[in-house]
Amino acid sequence: QPSCQFVLKLYDHLLAGDTLADSVASAREAARIDGDATWLAYTVYGNPEARLHYESPADSGTPGPKAAAGG
User: Fold this and answer.
1) CA neighbours within 13 Å on the CB side: how many for 28?
2) Is residue 64 within a helix (H) or strand (E), and if so which, with residue range?
């Protein structure tokens, strides 16, 4: 269950517009506070400045989150 809580917190932050680096740090901190002894073992590879954003259906043909590098 600890990994599930990490992922849920990670995506909460990503969907709120935080960078990948900030989202991972926040999810790790939440796991640490919850007493998960493996909180530092969670690793995510990617551009630390990447953010998720939404494109309108008219822009892409498909609504939903898209990865974007940088701010």
Assistant:
1) 13
2) strand 64-68
